[in-house]
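Methods — Computational structure assignment.
A single polypeptide chain was analysed. Its primary sequence is given first, followed by the predicted tertiary structure written as structure tokens.
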Amino acid sequence: MKAENGEIINSFTRLLNYIYKNMAQTINQRIDALRALLKREGIDAFIIPSTDPHLSEYVAPYWKSREWISGFTGSAGTAVITTDKAGLWTDSRYFLQAEQQLEGSGIDLYKEMLPETPSILDFLRENLTANSVVGIDGKVFSTTQAIALQEDLAKNDITVKSIADPMNEIWTDRPPMPEAPAFIHEMKYAGKSCPDKLAAIRREMKKSEADVLLVSALDEIAWTLNIRGNDVHCNPVVVSYLIINEQETHFFIQPEKVTEELSAYLEEAGVTIHAYGDTESFVTRIPDGSIMLDMGKTNYAVYSALPPSCRVLDERSPIALLKAVRNDREIAGIHAAMQRDGVALVKFLKWLEEAVPAGNETEISVDKKLHEFRAAQPLYMGESFDTIAGYKEHGTLRSHSGNGRATETRGIPAAGLGCAIPGRHYRHHPHHRTGETDRRREDGLHPDTERTYRPRHGCLPGRYARSATGCTGPHADMATPHELPAWYRARRRPFPQCARRSAKHPHE
């Protein structure tokens, strides 16, 4: 029996090695194709971030160009391809994962925030000469980023060239742009109508003496128009642009996403519908005057299309602050959503404590069970991010079932599992209403019921934590330290802090 098991394991290992080898060959072929295109364009290096034209952190499959070119599937990272080198920059959450997925690809891993790791700018300065050209797709770079890149590289006589997305030519089996229909977010959940929101926005524009407001952020568009969609995994938003002036509102969206119901609704609200691909050509025709936009949230391609005669007001969108103030209907919805999710989470924790000791559960089965409890609640719309669960050798990997890289550890003991439990979207949920994602929940299990602490913006290792017995709703994040090692106890904070994702991360 042992010999048979050993043979099975060896066969599985050979299969994995074969898959990784062929994947590496595929990545090399993709990089070669990109290099050929760049040579034709006179470009010496090309930067590929992880964003979309709306500078979103989470993007639809169509815009996962960095993942496609590198094979690295983490949510954060930037690839740089030169004529003879390739590198990928990512943060500490993904170091181990990136090492595994980049092996044999010819792409070097650059671990961000380590003293010995050069920045992308330093890398470009070191590997390029004067009069070199760095290419970017202006649609996936913010205006702020693109201008800063131009200014920094100009000091070394290196120019930056914005080109059309090269992946359109070399990514032959590229997924289509999101095609799911958008839908109306009803007043009984929103608490404020679209015309009322537009009126409030125009009042704020008047205060800033702005004639036009250009909105690129998907959550702001969803909130303004009271619409939702399924264009981005775990985010109830619709890929679109919005332009508001004193009298008119122009909405740019893929025509096939607009149902008859939505069309009638927007017409009644005074919103004119345009094709998504017409955004830049429309922008070129904006009359002289002042246009308000957030250069950190507006891509460089759209910014570059603005008439030179327009006066650009680089200010935070007034929508960001308007949607931060909840109305009574929204506040009631928050309470209702938290109650429903609290019920689901307590049911899950009860099941977990009973199921894990049997030794048959894995990270994946735990994830599926949690989803099952949440999906059973009324008005459930989906998760706000995929569950991250790890034990033993998977404890430092961001492993979950939602990305096609599922890892499983059998026989998880009650003292072992540490997981980031996802939030959720309900129709009453505050983030489903605003188009934002939910903040992350950290939890773990240990058979001890002493004091409770709330882990701040970080992770508590599962073997040192326990969910507080009987806690529900917003209190379900609470955990108990257990048998903390000396290096933990020596710290002033009760728990170690994970590296912060970024100041703008939606889960913070």
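Note: The first strand starts at residue 45 and ends at 48.
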